[in-house]
Amino acid sequence: MQKKVLEFMEQHHMIKEGERILVAVSGGADSMCLLLVLFQLCTTQKFEICVVHVEHGIRGKESEEDARFVENFCKMHKIPCKVYHCKAEKYAKEHKMTVEEGARELRYGYFKEAAKEFSADKIAVAHHQNDRAETMLFHLARGTDLKGLCGILPVRENVIRPLLCVERREIEAYLEEQGQAYCMDETNKELEYSRNRIRHQVLPELVQINQQAIGHMNQVAEKAQELEELVEQLTREAWERCVCEKNNDILVSERLRKEKYLIQKKVLYQAITRRAGSSKDISNVHICQVLELLEKQVGKKVNLPYELEAERTYEGILIHKIQENVEKILQNTWEVVPGEFVEIPELGYCIHTRIIEGNIQNQEIPQKMYTKWLDYDKIKGSMHLRTRREKDYFIINTRGERKKLKKYLIDEKVPCKQREKVLLLADEEHLVWVIGHRIGEDVKVTEHTKRILEIQIDGGNIHE
């Protein structure tokens, strides 16, 4: 057993000389086997061990006895030990989890706390090949991808699993050979838990079909892990080619089309979960719906969990938050009176205006995107800043021909999301300036202009 575990640990580079390993010990057969093996190896391999035990408060006196059992073993062998007591059922209820989920979250939280207290480099947990096979079956039953077929990984961040090279029967045989007692958790026999049904009903049937079933399933998991690592590498490379992050939004470019279908889906999955800040509730259905946007026209959208939406743009697919509050703000209008200062704090804009009179023949007209000169005498009535409305238009040439704003924005390839937010300066008849773009031909300053309206917009996303 010791030789087999050591070779597995070396294969996966689990422990370095001089490191301190925190061993998670429940007192059951698996964790006592792990503790005993590491205790026997630590002297020859020159690493240290310490122990953490979490008493979940579920089984009353039995779980308290398990805690004392672990403490006594550690005292006898002079191993540093930390015991935590908690109320897993209460925690699970408060956080709307199953008891299994709540207990696991608490357990790993205490593992991290103990690792910090002991200055431990790694946390060793006692998962073995049967556990990995159970996890694979559990994932398959619920629906999974290649990552789910990997089951439990030998190393994940600072968590190591040295027993992932042995089956449960080997653990029991080793403990009997060593004469090592262990605790029995009766809840492991209760069939109300899905994992227990897989453990006691499904796996035994598979072993009846083939005695090497568990070993074979672990071999498949290892191959799946190798493939998953390759896919992850290809996904990272595709991400660099195809993805741009800007202002918390994620743009997946048209270049994604050139990638293999599997990589396309992986990139989109990462883009959505990254923007959402969570992978929960992001399913294959969502990924396929977003991928289909590449075949649809600009402006098409897909609603996603976490108040996200994916939108088809000229550049590709934009994944962003649905900004309902901003849309409401943009329904407002702001009057512009020459000489008065206008501020739109919700959008971060400041508008400065003034009238220039007198000899203007020798003055140079500003060529800046957000500072414009308009012929003030050609503006009809009052002026307002607003967003677009149905039938908006402006004059495009000296013949007085009109162009609809909608067509202009499409011709300029302004993304659909941005069209709704483009600020417009309008008089009582039509548009005089599509801000950030062009002004109407009819209000341009000419040699006949007597009064100039200078308007300057600062702030927001504007950079001159």
In brief, what are we looking at here?
By secondary structure, the protein is an alpha+beta fold. It contains 15 helices and 21 strands. A six-stranded mixed β-sheet has the order 3-2-1-4-6-5, with helices on both faces. A five-stranded antiparallel β-sheet has the order 7-8-11-10-9. Strands 12-16-19-20 form a four-stranded antiparallel β-sheet, with no helix packed on it.
Task: Set down the secondary structure blueprint.
Elements (H helix, E strand, L loop, with lengths): L1 H10 L8 E5 L4 H17 L2 E8 L5 H16 L4 E5 L2 H7 L4 H20 L3 E3 L4 H14 L3 H4 L5 E2 L2 E2 L7 H11 L15 H16 L3 H30 E4 L2 E5 L7 H16 L7 H9 L8 E4 L3 E5 L3 E6 L2 H6 L4 E3 L5 E3 L4 E8 L14 E5 L7 E4 L6 E3 L6 E3 H7 L4 H4 L4 E3 L4 E4 L17 E8 L5
Parallel strand pairs: 1-2, 1-4, 2-3, 4-6
Antiparallel strand pairs: 5-6, 7-8, 8-11, 9-10, 10-11, 12-16, 13-14, 14-21, 15-21, 16-19, 17-18, 19-20
Helix pairs in contact: 2-8, 4-5, 6-9, 6-10, 10-11, 11-12
How many individual helices? 15
Which class do the helix and strand fractions yield?
Answer: alpha+beta
Task: Label the CATH architecture of the largest domain.
Answer: 3-Layer(aba) Sandwich
CATH superfamily of the largest domain: HUPs
Task: Tell me what the structure shows.
The chain contains 15 helices and 21 strands. It is an alpha+beta fold and 464 residues long. Helices cover 40% and strands 20% of the residues. It has a 6-stranded mixed β-sheet with strand order 3-2-1-4-6-5, with helices on both faces. The chain has 3 domains: 2-210, HUPs (Rossmann fold); 247-319, Uridine Diphospho-n-acetylenolpyruvylglucosamine Reductase, domain 3, CATH 3.30.465.60; 327-459, no CATH class. The chain is elongated, with a radius of gyration of 33 Å.
